[in-house]
Amino acid sequence: MRKTLNIIMIFCALACQFANAEPHDYTKYRNCSGEEDLSLSEMSNPKKIETTAVFNKNGYHFETILYNYKAKLGSEWVSGSSCTTVDQNRKIILGVSNGSSTYCGGNWNKTLNHPTWKIWGDDSNAGQQEFIPSFMLKSDINSKQKKLDNEIDSIYSNLKCMYQPYAKADIEEINNTAFFLGQLGQPKKAIELLSEVIKLDPNRAVAYFNIADSYMSLGQKDSAIQNYKKYIQLMKTKGLETKIPQRVLELVK
To answer: Whole-prediction pTM value?
Structure first.
């Protein structure tokens, strides 16, 4: 009985601590939302109303929070409300929707292993908003809707804002984003990211394969062959020689 009471008391203490915790001062978070019209850094006394939804899965911890605030818009201070999506792990702002009841009324798609916001409707017709750069690009490739160059530029800038300085834990996301950029006809951006992947993990064979493909698409055959050779070397070292595409072996002959 005493043990049960102790557990209840601990649970209550934790619950009360959470309930009374100061709201996150997200004006100090790095803003990766791309929101230009309203400077989040100039918000005055943001008041948290509620955390409307949390996605805590597969290492992600995203929250969507409804705020009231006063902010400087041009030369005037204005009042408003904001439904703001933040990555609590990295302390960054990913999305800002000012006064949008549709967006604030959405929820996270918990059937997925990465954060995707359902803006409206049921599971069959919900509008989806992605926040992870590689999934933003992948979703358009799957839907066969080619993104405009300015949209790709925005996602690319978003990735750099979210992940720089790059760390080993980010390799998978950087590599995947680079791969999809290559698929979308953006080899220069792909090369830049894959170069970062190789710096972080010089033994990642697939990075050499992808960067070689990007060099080939730019007509830089010598650089491509150099990276294909490194790819072949690593694949042989790992005992994966049979998985090397025939086209690669023919190119380096």
So the answer is: 0.79
